Amino acid sequence: MTYIPPERDDALDQTRQLEFTPPPMPTTGDGGPVDPFAGQGPEAAAPAEPAATRDRVLFQFIWEAILLLLTLNALFMVYRDEDALFGDEFGTLVDALDPHALYLTPVLLAALAIGLSLRLGAVNLAVPAVAITVGWIAGPVDANLWVHAGFVAAAAVVAALVYVLLVAVFRVPPWFAGLALAAAFMASAQALERLSESRVADSVAMWDPPNGVYVFAGAAVLAVAGGLIGLVPGVRDGFSAVKRMADGGERGAGAVFLLLGGTVLSMLLAAGAGFLMFAYTLAPTTEPTSLGFGPYGFGSAGVDLQLLAFVAALLGGTSLWGRRGGVLGTVLAVLAVWAGMVLWNHDMTAAGEASWQDDYAPLIDVGILFVAVFVSFALDRLGQPKDAVDPDEGVYTQEMRPFEPTSNGPEGTGLFEPTLPDANAHQR
């Protein structure tokens, strides 16, 4: 007997492929997948903001401790050779401290001025030119030195305003703006000399030199106070904002005013250095004297004020890249450099002009500058905060969030309630 299957009824055919587009699978609020077998879980919490990172100033303090030991060692070497260094000229080291400290104060003020502009992230190369023009090139504009000091301060403020205008408004690179101002100061020397001759009828009565130790101590207190203010995180953040603006970034009102205030203070410090050199006749000398160090020396014994200011600021821990700096480092660096120059100039004078000390002295000065650059680089990298670990963007890293469907399952999702019996179980 042969079995003949019944004819297929297309209306009752359940084997055909259904044609439909499944809806998207539901997700949780944070974009994660749904677990249909778990109950409703808590909503995902918003990710917390990372804590603000701060500079690591510990390395700066460690370097200042090392620099303190080096400075004390250099000062001890000066003390050990005081008879050879100061015996014929001053008698003892105590007698020599007064004039040497007075001669060293303008160097410290110039280093503070260039260091402040470095921390702002807008280095002002006009700082040494202001000090040299006021101190040695331009004549006084009034016979009264206090009136002349007022003119000098006003000129420094005007120069600072021009600098900020060039950097913040016209977006001129800071180094070029400072170079242009330096050229302007040098070019105005002859005109200032004519103005001095027309206003000053009689000779100017110079002030009697004060106790140089007190003057240097006052400048050192100013340096320490500025360094302590620079440790405040908000002030450092402001320095970073100024640097971003100077590099062509966003120009905010706070950054502009901080640049203005810092530049005015920097120019006033430079003008103060020049005024001290003028008022107390602190000028270079050709005589073989222990006071002929740094900018006061001639030939191989002389060191340019700009080079000396950069060396002191960088050795003190000021960063070439802005923001970071020390507290007592610049003062210690100035003292250490002074001791080294006094010792070296004495040996160079004793050896004579044809000695190797005389030939290699400029190269040694440049070598010390490179050492200062390395110190600034190392402290800047060590002082940077640790990089915060940012979460991967676009990658789901949280655990699977549960999802509780409705009584009959979400409509159109194909999900089912696992606790209900299978509706087709009786057909199997």
Automatic annotation (TrEMBL):
User: Which spans are transmembrane here?
Assistant: 61-80, 100-118, 123-139, 145-168, 175-192, 212-235, 256-281, 293-315, 327-344, 360-379
Keyword tRNA processing in record = no
Give start-end positions of Basic and acidic residues composition bias: 1-13
Q: Which UniProt keywords apply?
A: Membrane, Transmembrane, Transmembrane helix
Where on the tree of life does the source sit, at the highest rank? Bacteria
Q: Where does the record place the region Disordered?
A: 1-46, 388-428
The keyword Transmembrane belongs to this UniProt entry's keyword annotation: yes
Q: What is this protein called?
A: ABC transporter permease
